[in-house]
Amino acid sequence: MTTGGAGAGNTGVERIFTGLGVSSGIAIGPAYIVQLDRPKAPVFSITDVEGEQARFAAAVDEVRIDLEALKDSAAALPDTAAEEITLLLEAHLAMISGSRLIRFALKKIADDKCNAEAALDHAVRDIADQFRALKDNYIAARIDDVEAVGNRLMRALLKLPYMALDSVPVGGIVLAKEISPADTALLDPRRFIGLGTVHGGAAGHTAIMARSLGLPAVLGLDPAALEGHQGEMLIVDGTGGRIILNPAAETLRDYEARRTAAEAARTALAKLATAPAVTTDGTEVILRANLEIPREVDAILAAGGQGIGLFRTEFLYMNRATLPTEDEQFEAMAGVVRAMQGAPVTFRTLDIGGDKLAKSVGEYLGESVNPALGLRAIRLSLKEPHLLRAQMRAILRAGALGPIRILLPMVTTADEVEQSRKIMRESYKELQKQGVQVPPQLPPLGTMIEIPAAALSADSLAAVSDFFALGTNDLIQYTVAIDRGDDQVAALYNPLNPAVLRLIEFTIEAARRTGIPICICGEMGADPRYTPLLLGLGIREFSMGFSSLLRVKERIRQLSLTGAEEHAAEVMNQYEPQRITDLVHRYTP
Ligand code: PEP
Ligand code: MG
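Above: the input record for the complex with magnesium ion. Below: its predicted structure, written as tokens.
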């Protein structure tokens, strides 16, 4: 929604767009509008074939210089980001060095006597069609690369600037149509200070990433928000769910004051980093962090995180053409175990599939009519056990350096846990036989409860699991049939839906009866409004993006367990969603 009376793209007039505020805080800075679509190619005939081919060759040279420069600047990024971006840029450089794409376009100019843009457009489309026709997932994934290079070349020919996620100016605010989980790994959080996108829901990966990096973010924006001007002044109000392009002087002053107040509140909250998470009546709660990219470790420690409750290993598989080796995985994992200085790290095995795609795994993922219900996570790991074995070996080796736990994603049946445990045992013995250092004992093997079937059979799963982790992001999605990343139905994605609450309660009870620990690592656990209810239902361990840790700790320290239990009992007696929401949102200890 827009207000301000100006058409998109006008300057000089304040324009407000409302959306979903998924990560709180205020950011003020120049807009960096990411336009990844290929501009439309003009089509005309030419007579000077050599001249046109030379113009195309000049564009290729310009793109090569840009890519080389980007590669140099990527070297200054944190380790894993540098490696990922360099690999990607090298693949793109290879594609403009005498590749089929370039030969095809040059030939087209000569054969059809057409302009370079039209020839390039043909070449990109033809190659993409040929790749698609091969019906091979690995090759299909290369289409993105051909299109990205085609996009860069087209912009060079048309003398339009290329805007990509890997070249955000320092202090900029990214505005984009969408940001895929793989794009996330390309974003250097030191460079930009806020985020706005057209697509994405509150529990989708863009939202999780923004929260975990502490970046104010608004998703679900009107596409017209992208029609602003590069560098235009922009405010992202992640708390109120709006962005303001070209704010009036008074609006700017107001938001600068709000930003200062938010910073003061953050400084005050930072004092809680070393305080215990304990209720007023003495119940201790464990607060751990979710980790996507290893560079978050320092911030997790600074926020007082008592270990990692969820290490999403799929991020090690993104933005690369080949699978990470066991050694590469071990290095990344060992770095985190060492950095956590004796606090436990929970490694979740690969959760690829659904909306989390990685080219490197493409060859193992067949086409799926409905990827959210397809070959994902533990299903893939058990279908291709060599993937799981490599992960188990890397995790167990990292476990020789500090306490670890292993967590299985998207489990539906006890059999999946048992098969995985067998692979864990075999990998452990194999490593011992090879004289490789492993932990003194097999680590705890836990189960994510994030599919309604798993919650409903929590008793049988508890019997074969050493701990449970409640993945409410998927549990809500699959229970209420609302895509967690779809902005069109975002309003219906409700953690307080009575069906969801009953599944959570049932799972906690099953864990309690069997005597295994249970933690919550979905986004619901990161929202302090739900802390009394979750505590009252029996949760004593939370894991969340580090930027939420202190707010949840502050809330825990205001609550009494008795009060929280009474609150939970009252909520669980209701069946009216609105009544539940009112009770939860208005609860005061
Ligand atoms: C979840 O589903 O709640 C969860 C923690 O896993 P992910 O967000 O990685 O799917
Ligand atoms: Mg999940």
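Notes for the reader.
Confidence is low (pLDDT under 50) at residues 1-11.
The CA atoms of residues 8 and 227 lie 6 Å apart.
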